[in-house]
Design brief:
alpha/beta; Rossmann fold; seven-stranded mixed beta sheet
Length: 229
């Protein structure tokens, strides 16, 4: 197209626009992610957050990976939570994973990745939760079905005023997402997260993100880990 406004008119035209909007969103979103990215968060979750929630007799712990990209983050959560549940009878959990990009969500739902992407997954988890493709030349792994079924993927725009969550959640992972928003948008978003969290719930943000300049009712439990008191 010859100009920005021509593209704008096209995207917001009712008929053709919907498909173009979706393509545009896929092209402008940055989907970089990894299994066990920023591993300190998963250690903290396993050692501190989950024992605390389990000790408070939470019947079911609800997690939300907000801005889940191609699924590595929620599948990492599913591995860590499954491991915890194996050691703590009567511990149940659910994982909701959302993103704006339909393309990223398609990869996430398929659960199929290039073998080298699985590099950061610890060996014992690889054996348990990753299936190698029958043809080694293809160099692919697939998340085992019992782990895939633990994650519900859904398209959700974090700019929406209402996220349509039926129940409050106990843990939100929203990492390496708010860094792309301006200060005002970050503040509104984190306040919406606060409302979605159950009392005593946790918000994990990316290592290069900070809430310190925002007016939000959260206390820091550890660097980049906030708690709703
Ligand atoms: C850099 S990735 C981070 C993935 C993962 N959380 C991690 O830390 O590895 C950022 C993701 O945020 C998503 N995103 C950006 N804006 C969004 C919005 N308004 N609503 C929902 N997701 C959004 C992008 O599509 C992208 O998949």
């Amino acid at each position: 197209m010859r100009s920005f406004s021509e593209h704008w008119d096209y995207v917001f035209s009712l008929k053709e626009g919907m498909a173009e909007l979706s393509t545009m969103v896929d092209l402008v979103t940055t989907n970089k992610t990894d299994f066990f990215r920023e591993p300190m968060h998963f250690e903290y979750l396993f050692e501190k957050t989950l024992p605390e929630l389990a000790a408070n007799n939470k019947k079911k712990v609800r997690l939300w990976s907000a801005g889940c990209s191609t699924g590595e983050e929620p599948y990492t959560l599913a591995m860590v939570l499954s491991e915890f549940a194996e050691r703590h009878r009567g511990f149940f959990f659910s994982i909701l994973a959302t993103d704006l990009s339909g393309h990223a969500l398609e990869t996430a739902k398929s659960g199929v990745y290039e073998m080298e992407r699985a590099g950061p997954v610890p060996w014992e988890f690889k054996k348990k939760y990753l299936l190698k493709s029958k043809d080694p030349k293809r160099g692919l792994v697939r998340i085992a079905p019992e782990l895939r079924y633990l994650v519900e993927f859904r398209r959700l725009n974090l700019m929406d005023m209402d996220y349509g969550l039926r129940e409050s959640v106990d843990i939100i992972f929203c990492r390496n997402v708010i860094i792309y928003f301006d200060r005002d948008t970050q503040e509104k978003l984190v306040n919406r997260f606060w409302r979605s969290l159950a009392p005593g719930g946790y918000l994990f943000i990316g290592h290069s993100e900070s809430l310190s300049s925002l007016d939000v009712p959260m206390s820091m439990a550890a660097p980049t880990i906030c708690k709703k008191f």
